[in-house]
């Protein structure tokens, strides 16, 4: 790993081509984390100008993400990498009061979206996608189709609108291209100097992709919002953002004339669309890949979903024991689906690396790390760590269905797919509700199987999404 990092460090920034080559080298190296967890409690690499540490020691993890989170803000490199896409949106911001304020606005807007709305929208759109897949009668390109579906769900539930099919396809293509190029490790190799990092971002060619994506978001979501005040019940997130944008001025301002505020709204809408779709699409893609090779898991889920939906269809004449049976059926199906998503989140956390930087010199496990160094907490390595999990690389949803939770869960930081501390994911509940609804429709009515084609690898750049658009057979389940 050290050798590859130093080779990539020498190539990165020389030209656009060399930068892309360096990105490929690093990504390939990171893929080897699959099945071979980097298990040392603390790994420190000396980079050309600084240091990079990976912490698996749970006390160190706590210090970094929670206890002393103020000393270890999100790395500014991440902000530079995401800026062409999300501008000054909350996700990329290192820390401080501005982030607290942005998170408050984001959370206030998010809690306006009722869970029933997320479930209703997710179920309806999943049924529409399934019908479309059946009409086409071809193996389904799972990662890109799930990306389109989850963008539609997040935008419909929060903004009351969707991309057209052509725009959705283009958006997904662009985002995949962005992912392939945006490699945080390359920025770390370049050191902390803002000008060097900026030059590297330019060599990655992210500006043009980001600009086209932002133009699509502006056209489809921001412009209609500015023209038409959104209904709070159809577009709860957008309505809350508009309120926040108008607040603090004492007068109702015309957003149409206020470019700075429009840009701030565009930034947060971009964060909502990107953080809110890619993560769930990636987890579900990996889950379907695993399930396609586990027909018994699919059958069990389908049976429980069918029993639960019989209960849902009960009329008012049902007696107490029938009503109880319906409630129990619903709970059993929900528990089964939660076990599937938990196991996929454990094995394939979409944000595999949480990147922080040191604002002062520190020492962890008696190893000094310089100020301006980088520290990484990796949900990927923690959630596959042999000291914490039994059979860590095996896809085994049953571990979440036993009477007792897995022993690793005695450690609260052994499973952190949504992060931890003041920057923890605000969309956790949204994601859980959405994933349950999608799976319930999909596994309740269809059977999935692998065809030909190699196993996907995690991309290993911004997220751990599959590195190619693998296809699965999705066929309707017969009755019974
Ligand atoms: C399976 C689904 C998801 C996973 C695994 C996930 C994971 C994460 C993680 C690990 C972080 C923290 C990154 C860090 O500390 O460096 C994060 C941040 C964030 N997530 Fe999620 N996320 C998911 C879905 C969502 C959804 C559905 C939304 C919105 C509806 C969302 C919105 C955000 C936002 C806005 C942030 C940035 C918060 C901040 O910077 O303070 N996420 N997510």
UniProtKB/TrEMBL annotation:
Record keywords: Heme, Iron, Metal-binding, Monooxygenase, Oxidoreductase
Q: PROSITE patterns from the entry?
A: CYTOCHROME_P450
- Record's family? Belongs to the cytochrome P450 family.
The protein's required cofactors: heme
Recorded protein name is: Cytochrome P450
InterPro entries linked to this entry? Cyt_P450, Cyt_P450_CS, Cyt_P450_E_grp-IV, Cyt_P450_sf, Cytochrome_P450_monoxygenase
Q: Which domain of life is it from?
A: Bacteria
């Amino acid at each position: 790993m050290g050798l590859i990092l130093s080779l990539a460090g020498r190539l990165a920034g020389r030209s656009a081509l060399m930068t892309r080559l360096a990105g490929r080298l690093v990504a390939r190296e990171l893929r080897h984390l699959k099945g071979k967890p980097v298990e040392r409690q603390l790994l420190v690499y000396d980079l050309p100008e600084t240091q990079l540490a990976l912490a698996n020691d749970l006390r160190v993890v706590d210090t970094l993400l929670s206890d002393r989170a103020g000393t270890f803000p999100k790395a500014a490199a991440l902000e530079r990498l995401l800026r062409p896409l999300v501008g000054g949106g909350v996700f990329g911001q290192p820390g401080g009061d501005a982030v607290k304020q942005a998170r408050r606005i984001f959370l206030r807007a998010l809690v306006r979206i009722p869970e029933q709305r997320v479930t209703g929208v997710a179920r309806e759109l999943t049924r529409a996608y399934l019908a479309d897949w059946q009409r086409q009668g071809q193996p389904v390109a799972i990662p890109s189709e799930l990306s389109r579906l989850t963008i539609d769900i997040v935008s419909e539930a929060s903004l009351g609108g969707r991309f057209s099919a052509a725009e959705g396809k283009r958006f997904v293509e662009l985002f995949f291209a962005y992912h392939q190029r945006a490699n945080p490790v390359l920025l770390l190799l370049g050191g902390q100097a803002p000008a060097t990092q900026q030059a590297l971002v330019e060599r990655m060619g992210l500006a043009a992709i980001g600009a086209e994506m932002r133009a699509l978001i502006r056209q489809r979501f921001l412009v209609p919002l500015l023209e038409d005040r959104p209904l709070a019940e159809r577009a709860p997130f957008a309505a809350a953002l508009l309120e926040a944008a108008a607040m603090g001025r004492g007068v109702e301002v015309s957003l149409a004339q206020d470019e700075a505020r429009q840009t701030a709204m565009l930034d947060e809408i971009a964060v909502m669309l990107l953080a809110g779709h890619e993560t769930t699409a990636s987890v579900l893609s990996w889950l379907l890949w695993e399930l396609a090779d586990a027909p018994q898991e699919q059958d069990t889920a389908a049976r429980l979903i069918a029993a639960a939906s019989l209960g849902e269809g009960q009329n008012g004449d049902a007696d107490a024991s029938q009503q109880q049976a319906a409630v129990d059926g619903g709970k059993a199906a929900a528990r089964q689906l939660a076990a599937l998503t938990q196991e996929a989140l454990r094995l394939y956390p979409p944000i595999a690396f949480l990147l922080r930087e040191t604002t002062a010199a520190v020492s962890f496990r008696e190893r000094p790390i310089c100020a301006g160094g980088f520290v990484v907490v990796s949900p990927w390595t923690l959630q596959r760590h042999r000291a914490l999990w039994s059979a860590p690389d095996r896809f085994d949803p049953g571990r979440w269905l036993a009477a007792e939770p897995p022993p690793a869960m005695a450690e609260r930081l052994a499973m952190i797919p949504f992060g931890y501390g003041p920057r923890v994911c605000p969309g956790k509940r949204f994601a859980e509700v959405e994933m349950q609804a999608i799976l319930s429709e999909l596994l309740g009515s269809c059977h999935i199987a692998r065809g030909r084609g190699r196993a996907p690898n995690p991309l290993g750049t911004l997220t751990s999404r599959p590195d190619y658009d693998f296809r699965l057979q999705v066929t309707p389940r017969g009755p019974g």
